[in-house]
Amino acid sequence: MSTACDAAPRQADRQRRAVPVLVAVLLALLVLPTSVTGSGVALPAIGRESGASLAALQWVVHGYNLTFASFLLACGSLADRWGRRRAFAGGAALFTVASTVSAAADDILLLDFARALAGVGAAALLTSGSSLIGATFKGKARGRAFGAVGITTGAGLALGAMAAGLVTDTLGWRAFFGLHAALMAVVWCTVPLLPRDGAEEHAVRGRRPAGEDGTDGFRPVRVDWAGTAAFSGGLFLLMLGTVEGPQRGWGSAEVLGLLVGSVVLLAAFALVERQVRHPMLDLRLLRNRQFTALCLIPVVATLSFVILLPLLPNYLMVANGYSSRDAGGVMLLMTLPILVTPLAATRLLRWGLTLRGVFGLSLLCLTVGVGWLAAVLEPGLAPGTLAGPLITLGVGLGLNFGLVDGAVLDVVAPESTGTAAGFLNTLRLGSEALAIAAVSAALVNLVRKPFDARLNEFPSYDGSSGRLANSVNAGDLSGPLSELPASVRPDFTALVTHGLTDAWHTVLWASAVLCAVTSAVICFLLGRSTTGTR
């Protein structure tokens, strides 16, 4: 009887502690995706004020993506070692400080550095936040909590570009980062309400509980610093070489040195992971065909959907003459379906469609969507014409949004779920960072060719083809036009918009082919045994 009486207060106490956990994590996860989608929309305004090159500007996005992807597993290990709450607090504090510095930065290099620090904070927030929810909620409540996480993250993706455009057009780009700092400061203030765990209590000894309740003894947790350094360094050099290739020339000693250094570090990473006792990534997981296939699904999403988030608004601002706000509004056609399509995926599974079938439908939508966009994209295109391909892309991503994460954990051994989740998120965010950098570089390289051939027709333009390519790919045509007499501006605009459109056609068709090939490989690896059980 006394046990039953004691259980009720404990249950009530658990529910009271669950509320601040959910509020804190959901608010953090609302901010993190807007930092990716929104910063791309703010780039033209940052470029006009700073006069920075496209390569320097793009590191506002690349720096965040790179550190976010590279530090996920390291931050997860630190959360295990020092405690979830402590890692969450550290991530929120770092993100707040970095966003504050971003809002106040007068130098583009300082802004790039601050954004990279924000990515580290984001990695700590994502890993520790998910762990907090997993530890706080049980049973059906955990499912509902993670459902709320998916919807909130989708809302951040859906509304990020529009919110950034609205804030940038009305208050300036600094207000965009300042708003992030303010929201994350609120998150940080909730930390005292979050529950402690055994790892935090025993952080001094550098050990964490082996059992869930901490009564089964303690075992040491070591961070794979060598693997983390090799992976982060290799990815950084690869991205830097990709960004600098169009600027310095792909055959230049600097770019070749960066790419060779990247190969060396990534090869060292593979060797380290085979030797260390607690690897950052357990490469043996790749022997599991279904696991490998599921981890490739976010790569297709990256090649079709994610690359458009920071880059397509810039095209719309140049080729269609949109403001930042208008470009962000058009992007809602692609992002809003993410809010509702996951529910449709759940319904399809209940109606008997296999998980493999849902993923196949998702991959089909993503591949068709990017090909459709390549077929219709033209200067001056009406939003209604863009609606079909953009909505299709949104539906494609929404069908696998969150579903992949659960499926990955179902196809690996229980003791490997943490590593599997870390591998998935690292591949997801790493492919996003690299693909955005590669597409940005390709667009600059492709658009310079028509400029090289025809800029001599406009002797009043004092800039180089490289400078013009950088400017228009950052979403700024007004700057170059201001240097020209009014009589030649229409012809100059036509040269720029058609050259930029041709470059986009090449990139989008290449993306469609890569998506089709990767999707075929995924469906083959998944086989016939992946059934809907949810």
TrEMBL record:
Top-rank taxon: Bacteria
Pfam families linked: MFS_1 (PF07690)
Domain Major facilitator superfamily (MFS) profile: residue ranges: 21-530
Membrane-topology annotation of the record: Multi-pass membrane protein
Alphabetized PROSITE patterns for the sequence: MFS
Keyword Transmembrane helix (UniProt): yes
Subcellular location: Cell membrane
Bilayer-spanning residue ranges: 54-75, 87-105, 117-137, 146-167, 173-195, 225-243, 255-272, 293-312, 327-345, 357-375, 387-408, 429-447, 507-527
UniProt keyword annotations, A-Z: Antibiotic resistance, Membrane, Transmembrane, Transmembrane helix
Name of the protein in question: MFS transporter
Classification of source organism: Bacteria, Bacillati, Actinomycetota, Actinomycetes, Kitasatosporales
